[in-house]
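Hi there,

I know you've been waiting on this one. I reran it after we fixed the sequence typo, so this is the corrected version. Both the input and the resulting structure follow.
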Amino acid sequence: MRNVYRILISISVAVLAALAQDPGRPEGAEEKGKKDISFSSDILPIFTKAGKCTLCHRGDNPSGLDLSPDKAYKNLVKVRSRQDPESFLVLPGEVEKSYLYQKLIEPGKEGTIMPPSGKLPDELLDKVSLWIKQGAKDN
C-alpha cells in the first residue's frame, strides 16, 4: 500500500512540475484573445482602398491574381502562388508560410514589394498578419 502512495505522490509531483513549466496556454492564444479580424470589413478594404491593389489585381491581369471584392477570398486562401508554386498565397494560421504577407513586407522571390507604391503602414500589416493567424476566415 505504501508503494501505491509513493507512486501517486511521484505522479502528482511530476504533473505539477510539468504544469509549472508550461501553464497550458494554447499556441496562438494571444492572437485569439484579440478582436477577430473580418475579411470583408478589415482585410478587403486594404486591397480595394488603402493599398490600391485592385488597380492592377482585378479581372484579366498579367499576374493572374484577381482581388476584386467578389473573388479575392477564393483567389487567396489555400491557393498556390504563381511566383512561388511551393507556397500558398494565404495559409490559414501560418503567417510565415503565406506568400501574400511576405510580398507585403519584402519583394519576395520575384518582382517588387506590394503594393509597388510603397510598403503598407504597420497597422494594416498587423491586421493582415492577425487575420492569417486567426485562421484567415471568410467573415
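Quick highlight: Residues 29-133 form one domain.

Best,
R. S.
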